[in-house]
Amino acid sequence: MKIDTIIHATWIAPVEPIDTLYHNYSIAIHEGRIKDLSPKQEILDKYSSDVEVELTNHLLIPGLVNTHTHSPMSLMRGLADDLPLMDWLNNHIWPAEQEHVSAEFVLDGSLLACAEMIKSGTTCFNDMYFFPEITTRAVEQAGMRAKVGLILIDFPSAWASDADEYLAKGIELHDQLRSNSLISTAFAPHAPYTVSDAPLKRIATYAEELDIPIHIHLHETADEIEQAVAHSGKRPITRLNELGLLSPRLLAVHMTQLTKDEIQLVAEAGAHVLHCPESNLKLASGFCPTHELQQSGINVALGTDGAASNNDLDMIAEMHTAALLAKAVANNASAIPAEEALRMATINGARALGLDSEIGSLEIGKSADITAVDLGGIENQPVYCPVSQLVYSAGRENVSNVWVAGNHLLKDKELTTLDEKAILAKAAEWKQKITD
After folding, report:
1. CB atoms within 10 A of CB 2
2. Selection from 218, 164, 166, 160 nearest residue 187 by Cα
3. Within its chain, how far is the Cα of 90 from the centroid?
4. How far is CA 288 from the centre of its chain?
5. Residue 328 Cα distances to 12, 53, 230, 295, 336, angstroms
6. pLDDT per residue as tens digits for the range 50-73
7. Distance between CA atoms of 369 and 348, rounded to whole angstroms?
8. What angle, rounded to 10 degrees, do the helices at 103-119 and 420-435 form?
9. CA angle 295, 253, 328 (to 5 degrees)
10. What pTM value is reported for the model?
């Protein structure tokens, strides 16, 4: 049978079934989907293809799913480092955004982010920022998969003046993307401290009607909790629960400040936690109790946060940090083993975004969203367990090839859909504008 592409690899970690590793297997791809996953000779006996990729000493994994980003903020990478969250936001990031954020800023920053993520092995991301329709253009140009956030915040911005306009524009974009196979939407109220009760109630209703998630920063810092209690007498998660937002639709980002009762509440609601370990560490926000959350049955996925607070969009590094940090927080060296870290970066993220029937694992019938990692270099030798090697010693520089829906977006470390030189030139221009 003639098909589109055959990929041969030394190892394949499909993620599903759990703890499975294939040696000298191949993936057959046709019309954007995984047609077959079998030993190499069986694939060669059954299929022929004009495109055949041989990846010796490579590990194939599902494309990485970055569940929390602010992609245009790549243009603010390193702008205001080593500051507490509210100082960083109030005195540096928000003033810079007020002066510079525009459709042009969002397009150039989103293209920079997409290029970085593809080269890091990420095939899908969940974004939250102004001008989401412009980020959509960048995603389409890159050929990636994304969940674009329908941002809402109480104060006016360059994109919208009030809650009514934010919601109207967001719903209009959702309608425009209904038939898009790679890009979908989520409501993205920024945080409990920046969105008041009335808009949050409307989002809870609209999310149910449109059947889309709600993506929000929640319990990020101790200061957030203290201010919420001083203002309303309620912890933010209690308030959201009373407003009807705590449900399987909720994608709660950070969650570093949780009581045992709140963990139980999240578990009973079926909400998802989007863990951003490196951003939390850099901003000294606190520690998400990932091992305890998972033991309670909560789905925990990984995100990088924006490049302005991380300062990268590197999901391989995020897996590494998540695994190590979980062990220290739980005082348990078995907490979040390598295989689980990989699941957090793939199938758990897909599940949180409602995309697990399409992506997150390498299974027959699913979309061919695939990342290839070269473990043949001296820094990764010898290879006893490829998945452990990926999480504990490999880096994004080892990513060699990336496919989304069977389309080859990174070929032998070269971007195929984006002009890297042009993106770099735009980044340099924005640095000049922002620092002048």
Report:
1. 8
2. 166
3. 25
4. 17
5. 30, 40, 32, 16, 11
6. 999 999 999 999 999 999 999 999
7. 15
8. 130
9. 50
10. 0.98
